[in-house]
Specification:
With 119 residues, the protein is mainly α. It contains 4 helices and no strands.
Length: 119
């Protein structure tokens, strides 16, 4: 049995979800309209779109620290067996054998009628 507070809470959560969904849809509609209006300014002469301030553009950017990605990747390739064709082929063979064994194992235990063990 749900009390009145529980019903009210679920109603409020439902309204909040609807509001978030509506805000999300409006934001995407605005993004789509702004991009079309910027690309075709002659079609929308009656619409003035404010420029995005430079602060917003820089705030949305994340600075990535300098890191030697290429050297690290080369080191990984040098130390990894998974880049050698022999290793890749043998892993494929092992996977195929595992699949065969698992299919055989399932076939033995998918019966619905149980047999009596004779000792």
């Amino acid at each position: 049995k749900i009390d009145r507070r529980g019903l009210r809470l679920s109603w409020l959560v439902q309204r909040l979800r609807k509001q978030i969904s509506l805000d999300y849809q409006r934001a995407h509609n605005r993004i789509a309209f702004d991009s079309v209006a910027h690309t075709l300014p002659g079609s929308f002469t009656y619409v003035t779109i404010p420029d995005v301030p430079e602060i917003c553009k820089s705030a949305a950017r994340i600075d990535i620290p300098k890191y030697p990605f290429h050297r690290q990747f080369d080191s990984f390739i040098f130390n990894s067996f998974l880049t050698r064709p022999e290793a890749i082929m043998s892993l494929g063979d092992v996977r195929a054998e595992c699949n065969k064994v698992s299919n055989r194992f399932e076939a033995n235990f998918t019966r619905h009628k149980y047999d009596r063990c004779k000792m």
